Amino acid sequence: MGGSFNPIHTGHLFLAEQARVCFQLQEVIFMPTGQPGYPKAELPVDSVYRMEMTLLAINDHPHFSLSSHEAEQDQPTFTIHTLKTFRKKYPSQTHELFFITGADAVRDILQWKEPEELLHLSQFIAGSRPQYALKEFKELMEQWPLAKTRIHFMQIPLLEISSRLIRDYLRQGKSIRYLVPASVEDYIYKHQLYSCERSVGQTS
Question: Which helix H or strand E contains 152, and what residues bound it?
Fold first, then answer.
């Protein structure tokens, strides 16, 4: 499961668990991005913070783990390079790979680096936010037959939660309790990430 996790939140965890159960996945590996290989309007906080928040969020789940592969790279990372690395570790003869992400990202997959090769290396599980209706992807399926069998969509209500929403709440002094795990909430305040201030009356 790739993403900036800036910060990781309940929606990410819910999507990962639903994908694990629905597709009978042996393990879900969370991989925070290092240097994104695409322009971003807002750069994420340092990967060290995002790695530590992700670990705090998943460390009580026996089928969730953390990879520092992308965060350790000293150059921009692309999904195609990551999947090629993982294919060497998990050969296609013995393992099926699934890349879990948001449907809004998969919608633009044709603009990703080497999109055809991506779908040969891995299947994709796309969690759909309420505002991204599944019908929006019919055109993608029609122009790209391989996508019909290699991209799977899941309607996930909790994905209405977004990292951007949480960052906005923090900057406005609003509570983020229950939007992120309690351990992640405490970590954000401890390290004063996202120019946040704890809401009045809110304690650890």
Answer: strand 151-155
